[in-house]
Design goal:
Blueprint lengths: L2 H5 L14 H36 L3 H25 L1
Helix pairs in contact: 2-3
Amino acid sequence: MSDVTKLFAETQPGPQEDQIDRSFVEIARTISAICATRILLLIAVLSGSAIWLWTVFDPSRDRLFAAIAFSVVFVIPQTILYWRRG
């Protein structure tokens, strides 16, 4: 069977309709919550890294305070949320 035939086959890979029950939906929601938490943490860490790089590039007092405030307000709570959710 070629790849094109597999793509448009009558039966697609994955669970069948009779296999989808409440536990399947709960597992999917749990996985999506974990992924969402990790994406938020990734965004916070990348933003924090950019702010800290901006601060290191030209270390003025105001930029240092902005980087510290960002880390306290965004990165630390996201890290705590990451540890709690696994």
